[in-house]
Specification:
Pfam families: Abhydrolase_3. It comes from Sporothrix stenoceras. Keywords: Hydrolase. The protein is an alpha/beta fold and 361 residues long. It has one domain: Alpha/Beta hydrolase fold, catalytic domain (Rossmann fold, 3-Layer(aba) Sandwich), CATH 3.40.50.1820. Helices cover 36% and strands 17% of the residues. It is built from eleven helices and eight strands. It has an eight-stranded mixed sheet, with helices on both faces. α4 crosses α5.
């Protein structure tokens, strides 16, 4: 797969890599990552060695051994698959994960939360197991059913199809959670990573604007917030910094040219629309409590921080963790880092807190 020679939407005007005055310090490299960076970049380069989308997607499906402490399939979690209809008749595959040690039934439905997973992968790659570590942790909780959405991928299915698929699954869950999942349709957590975070925000805004209840929390990892074509408008109107593309143009996993590759697949001939660029929304007021984890050495860093700022300006309870000097998706790449363990522990704690609040009598 080939990238552009120069960015089309971003001006790389930060040769010293200082970033903006508010957020630039987050890019100072973590020493453990700095030592492993060259090897990680070499591995990432092999994944791009593909001449077609099928090969490219398969390159990204290799699975490393799960780190110690990850709940295991068969022992701690069990999986099943179902298909549900999209608005155009397409059958969307869902992977359902739940605790293998705690039986779900009609009697437990009121206190069982649905965690609706929108995977990452630039809207064009990725699958049910992209965030397998996080999914197994969430699904092992006795009060959780995790539902992963195999939404259709760009460029074959550009915007708005991936978002529409997620919206259609959300509405199916609302209508069928009790009967099909033994879960509460009014206790739904949206869990998204990278592109999946952007889809989660788009879905949450649609639910808010259409007055569909049931979403009790957002868990957003390395969020995408807007197409960079609209960064000048967002800087001028809202004061967001949005300098991390220029500061980290060659980040591991995600870089300026890599992001433009995926954005061009997802939103060719992009037009202004908050459905693909949630930061364009006038306000995030009315969204549920949010939990964000953001990497410091990541071109998406400032989008994530802008999302957090917009949530806070809208009066939304927001918990934010920024991991200085670590790259996009570091928790999956460097699972032995103490920060990766912190990342997972914090997500687990947020989910536990959300469940306790939702089920408080």
């Amino acid at each position: 797969m080939k990238l552009k020679e120069t960015p089309e939407y971003i001006t790389l005007n930060d040769p010293e890599g200082k970033g903006g005055p508010r957020n630039g310090h987050y890019a100072e490299l973590d020493p453990h990552f700095a030592a492993a960076r060259e090897g990680a970049e070499a591995i990432m380069a092999t994944l791009w060695n593909a001449d077609d989308w099928e090969t490219f997607r398969n390159n990204w499906k290799g699975e490393a051994p799960l780190p110690e402490g990850t709940p295991k399939l068969g022992e701690d979690v069990e999986e099943s698959y179902i298909k549900v209809p999209a608005r155009d008749g397409h059958q969307i595959e869902l992977k359902v994960l739940k605790s293998a040690k705690h039986t779900k039934s009609a009697a437990t439905a009121d206190d069982t939360i649905v965690v609706l997973r929108m995977h990452g992968g630039g809207w064009a790659i990725g699958w049910h197991n992209t965030e397998i570590i996080e999914n197994h942790h969430a699904a092992s909780h006795p009060n959780v059913v995790l539902v992963s959405i195999d939404y259709r991928l760009a460029p074959e299915h550009p915007f708005p199809t991936p978002l529409n698929d997620c919206v259609d699954v959300f509405k199916w869950v609302k209508a069928n959670a009790r009967e099909k999942l033994f879960a509460n349709p009014d206790k739904i957590v949206l869990l998204g990573g990278s592109a999946g975070s952007g889809l989660s925000l788009g879905l949450a805004l649609k639910a808010r604007d259409e007055k569909i209840g049931g979403i009790i929390a957002l868990a957003l990892d390395w969020p995408t917030g807007a197409h960079p074509k609209f960064f000048p408008e967002l800087r001028e109107k809202f004061g967001y910094e949005l300098d991390s593309y220029s500061q980290v143009p060659q980040g591991v996993v995600a870089g300026a040219l890599i992001m433009e590759f995926f954005l061009d697949a997802y939103t060719p001939n992009v037009q202004r629309d908050q459905d693909h660029s949630p930061l364009l929304a006038e306000t995030f007021a009315g969204l549920p409590p949010a939990f964000l984890q953001i990497a410091g050495f990541d071109p998406l860093r400032d989008e994530g921080l802008a999302v957090a700022e917009k949530l806070q300006r809208g009066g939304v309870p927001t918990e934010v963790h920024v991991y200085r000097g670590l790259p996009h998706c570091f928790s999956m790449l460097f699972t032995d880092l103490p920060q990766a363990k912190d990342y997972q522990a914090r997500q687990n704690a947020f989910l536990e807190k959300t469940i306790k609040l939702a089920n408080a009598k």
